[in-house]
Amino acid sequence: MLPQTRLSWNRWGTLTAIGVIALAFYHGQSSVKGANTVLVPQELRIAVVDLNEVFRSWSRTQKLSATLNNKGQALKEWRASELSELKSLKSELLHLKPGSDAFKETVEKIRQREIEIDVSIEVRTKYLRTDQVRMTLDVYQQVLRCVEQVAREKGLALVLRKDNPPNERDTLSELQIDVQNHKVLFADKTMDITTHVLSKLESQSSR
User: Which of the listed residues 25, 50, 142, 174 has the most CB atoms within 10 Å of its CB?
Assistant: First the structure.
Protein backbone atom coordinates (compact mmCIF):
# COMPACT_ATOMS: atom_id res chain seq x y z
CA MET A 1 0.00 0.00 0.00
CA LEU A 2 2.83 2.31 0.74
CA PRO A 3 4.18 2.37 -2.83
CA GLN A 4 0.65 2.97 -4.12
CA THR A 5 0.18 5.87 -1.71
CA ARG A 6 3.51 7.35 -2.76
CA LEU A 7 2.45 7.01 -6.40
CA SER A 8 -0.83 8.77 -5.65
CA TRP A 9 0.95 11.70 -4.04
CA ASN A 10 3.36 11.91 -6.92
CA ARG A 11 0.47 12.01 -9.34
CA TRP A 12 -1.31 14.83 -7.48
CA GLY A 13 1.94 16.64 -6.99
CA THR A 14 2.55 16.54 -10.72
CA LEU A 15 -0.98 17.72 -11.46
CA THR A 16 -0.65 20.50 -8.89
CA ALA A 17 2.63 21.64 -10.38
CA ILE A 18 1.10 21.68 -13.85
CA GLY A 19 -1.81 23.71 -12.49
CA VAL A 20 0.50 26.23 -10.84
CA ILE A 21 2.55 26.63 -14.03
CA ALA A 22 -0.60 27.06 -16.10
CA LEU A 23 -1.99 29.64 -13.67
CA ALA A 24 1.29 31.54 -13.69
CA PHE A 25 1.35 31.48 -17.47
CA TYR A 26 -2.27 32.75 -17.57
CA HIS A 27 -1.49 35.64 -15.24
CA GLY A 28 1.61 36.47 -17.23
CA GLN A 29 -0.40 36.57 -20.44
CA SER A 30 -3.05 38.67 -18.73
CA SER A 31 -0.43 41.18 -17.57
CA VAL A 32 1.03 41.47 -21.03
CA LYS A 33 -2.39 41.82 -22.56
CA GLY A 34 -3.36 44.44 -19.99
CA ALA A 35 -0.22 46.39 -20.69
CA ASN A 36 -0.92 46.55 -24.44
CA THR A 37 -4.71 46.60 -24.61
CA VAL A 38 -7.00 49.52 -23.78
CA LEU A 39 -10.26 48.21 -22.42
CA VAL A 40 -13.16 50.61 -22.96
CA PRO A 41 -16.17 50.01 -20.70
CA GLN A 42 -19.18 48.97 -22.73
CA GLU A 43 -21.39 51.33 -20.78
CA LEU A 44 -19.29 54.37 -21.77
CA ARG A 45 -21.35 56.37 -24.27
CA ILE A 46 -19.56 58.96 -26.38
CA ALA A 47 -20.80 61.59 -28.86
CA VAL A 48 -19.40 64.41 -30.97
CA VAL A 49 -20.56 67.95 -31.75
CA ASP A 50 -19.54 70.06 -34.74
CA LEU A 51 -18.97 73.43 -33.07
CA ASN A 52 -18.22 75.10 -36.40
CA GLU A 53 -21.67 74.09 -37.62
CA VAL A 54 -23.25 75.27 -34.36
CA PHE A 55 -21.64 78.71 -34.58
CA ARG A 56 -22.44 78.95 -38.28
CA SER A 57 -26.09 77.86 -38.11
CA TRP A 58 -27.36 79.09 -34.74
CA SER A 59 -29.56 82.16 -35.21
CA ARG A 60 -28.06 83.90 -32.17
CA THR A 61 -24.51 83.68 -33.48
CA GLN A 62 -25.71 84.92 -36.85
CA LYS A 63 -27.26 87.97 -35.19
CA LEU A 64 -24.15 88.60 -33.09
CA SER A 65 -21.94 88.29 -36.16
CA ALA A 66 -24.12 90.84 -37.95
CA THR A 67 -23.92 93.18 -34.95
CA LEU A 68 -20.14 92.94 -34.77
CA ASN A 69 -19.82 93.39 -38.53
CA ASN A 70 -21.97 96.51 -38.35
CA LYS A 71 -19.80 97.90 -35.55
CA GLY A 72 -16.67 97.14 -37.54
CA GLN A 73 -18.12 98.77 -40.64
CA ALA A 74 -19.16 101.82 -38.62
CA LEU A 75 -15.60 102.14 -37.32
CA LYS A 76 -14.20 101.96 -40.85
CA GLU A 77 -16.63 104.61 -42.07
CA TRP A 78 -15.83 106.91 -39.13
CA ARG A 79 -12.10 106.51 -39.78
CA ALA A 80 -12.56 107.26 -43.48
CA SER A 81 -14.58 110.38 -42.65
CA GLU A 82 -11.97 111.64 -40.18
CA LEU A 83 -9.13 111.05 -42.62
CA SER A 84 -11.09 112.83 -45.33
CA GLU A 85 -11.47 115.91 -43.11
CA LEU A 86 -7.78 115.71 -42.26
CA LYS A 87 -6.93 115.61 -45.95
CA SER A 88 -9.05 118.70 -46.54
CA LEU A 89 -7.28 120.45 -43.70
CA LYS A 90 -3.91 119.60 -45.21
CA SER A 91 -5.01 120.95 -48.57
CA GLU A 92 -5.45 124.38 -46.93
CA LEU A 93 -1.67 124.59 -46.62
CA LEU A 94 -1.49 124.98 -50.39
CA HIS A 95 -3.18 128.34 -50.09
CA LEU A 96 -1.04 129.60 -47.23
CA LYS A 97 2.39 131.11 -47.30
CA PRO A 98 4.98 128.79 -45.76
CA GLY A 99 6.38 130.27 -42.56
CA SER A 100 3.41 132.56 -41.97
CA ASP A 101 1.48 132.50 -38.72
CA ALA A 102 -1.57 131.06 -40.50
CA PHE A 103 0.58 128.31 -42.01
CA LYS A 104 2.13 127.42 -38.65
CA GLU A 105 -1.27 127.40 -36.95
CA THR A 106 -2.69 125.08 -39.61
CA VAL A 107 0.31 122.74 -39.33
CA GLU A 108 -0.18 122.57 -35.55
CA LYS A 109 -3.90 121.98 -35.99
CA ILE A 110 -3.16 119.12 -38.39
CA ARG A 111 -0.68 117.57 -35.98
CA GLN A 112 -3.14 117.73 -33.08
CA ARG A 113 -5.90 116.30 -35.23
CA GLU A 114 -3.71 113.37 -36.33
CA ILE A 115 -2.98 112.55 -32.69
CA GLU A 116 -6.66 112.72 -31.78
CA ILE A 117 -7.64 110.45 -34.66
CA ASP A 118 -4.93 107.87 -33.83
CA VAL A 119 -5.94 107.76 -30.16
CA SER A 120 -9.63 107.55 -31.00
CA ILE A 121 -9.06 104.72 -33.50
CA GLU A 122 -7.04 102.78 -30.92
CA VAL A 123 -9.71 103.21 -28.24
CA ARG A 124 -12.61 102.35 -30.55
CA THR A 125 -10.78 99.29 -31.88
CA LYS A 126 -10.07 98.11 -28.33
CA TYR A 127 -13.75 98.44 -27.41
CA LEU A 128 -14.75 96.52 -30.53
CA ARG A 129 -12.36 93.67 -29.73
CA THR A 130 -13.60 93.59 -26.14
CA ASP A 131 -17.16 93.24 -27.42
CA GLN A 132 -16.07 90.43 -29.73
CA VAL A 133 -14.40 88.53 -26.89
CA ARG A 134 -17.28 89.07 -24.47
CA MET A 135 -19.96 88.04 -26.96
CA THR A 136 -18.02 85.03 -28.21
CA LEU A 137 -17.35 83.79 -24.68
CA ASP A 138 -21.00 84.26 -23.71
CA VAL A 139 -22.15 82.27 -26.74
CA TYR A 140 -19.59 79.52 -26.15
CA GLN A 141 -20.63 79.13 -22.51
CA GLN A 142 -24.28 78.82 -23.54
CA VAL A 143 -23.33 76.16 -26.09
CA LEU A 144 -21.42 74.23 -23.42
CA ARG A 145 -24.42 74.32 -21.09
CA CYS A 146 -26.66 73.10 -23.88
CA VAL A 147 -24.26 70.30 -24.80
CA GLU A 148 -24.25 69.18 -21.17
CA GLN A 149 -28.05 69.17 -21.08
CA VAL A 150 -28.31 67.08 -24.25
CA ALA A 151 -25.60 64.72 -22.99
CA ARG A 152 -27.40 64.13 -19.71
CA GLU A 153 -30.72 63.58 -21.49
CA LYS A 154 -29.11 60.94 -23.70
CA GLY A 155 -27.05 59.35 -20.94
CA LEU A 156 -23.74 60.30 -22.51
CA ALA A 157 -20.52 60.14 -20.53
CA LEU A 158 -18.28 62.07 -22.91
CA VAL A 159 -18.82 64.61 -25.71
CA LEU A 160 -15.97 65.53 -28.03
CA ARG A 161 -15.59 68.30 -30.54
CA LYS A 162 -15.95 67.07 -34.09
CA ASP A 163 -13.36 68.61 -36.38
CA ASN A 164 -12.82 68.33 -40.10
CA PRO A 165 -9.82 66.47 -41.55
CA PRO A 166 -6.83 68.63 -42.54
CA ASN A 167 -6.92 70.07 -46.06
CA GLU A 168 -4.15 71.15 -48.37
CA ARG A 169 -1.94 73.91 -47.00
CA ASP A 170 0.66 76.21 -48.49
CA THR A 171 3.42 75.00 -46.19
CA LEU A 172 4.32 71.76 -44.45
CA SER A 173 4.34 73.46 -41.04
CA GLU A 174 0.74 74.61 -41.49
CA LEU A 175 -0.31 71.08 -42.45
CA GLN A 176 1.53 69.63 -39.44
CA ILE A 177 -0.32 72.03 -37.13
CA ASP A 178 -3.64 70.97 -38.65
CA VAL A 179 -2.76 67.29 -38.22
CA GLN A 180 -1.78 67.83 -34.58
CA ASN A 181 -5.00 69.72 -33.88
CA HIS A 182 -7.13 67.03 -35.52
CA LYS A 183 -8.25 65.14 -32.41
CA VAL A 184 -11.18 62.95 -33.44
CA LEU A 185 -9.92 60.64 -36.17
CA PHE A 186 -13.22 58.81 -36.67
CA ALA A 187 -16.77 59.11 -35.40
CA ASP A 188 -19.79 57.28 -36.72
CA LYS A 189 -22.68 59.47 -37.86
CA THR A 190 -24.87 58.01 -35.14
CA MET A 191 -22.56 59.62 -32.57
CA ASP A 192 -23.11 63.14 -33.95
CA ILE A 193 -25.53 65.14 -31.77
CA THR A 194 -24.99 68.50 -33.49
CA THR A 195 -28.58 68.75 -34.73
CA HIS A 196 -29.90 67.97 -31.24
CA VAL A 197 -27.74 70.70 -29.72
CA LEU A 198 -28.80 73.22 -32.37
CA SER A 199 -32.47 72.37 -31.84
CA LYS A 200 -32.21 72.91 -28.08
CA LEU A 201 -30.29 76.17 -28.56
CA GLU A 202 -32.94 77.50 -30.89
CA SER A 203 -35.73 76.52 -28.50
CA GLN A 204 -33.95 78.24 -25.62
CA SER A 205 -33.34 81.40 -27.69
CA SER A 206 -37.01 81.68 -28.63
CA ARG A 207 -38.17 81.78 -25.02
Answer: 50
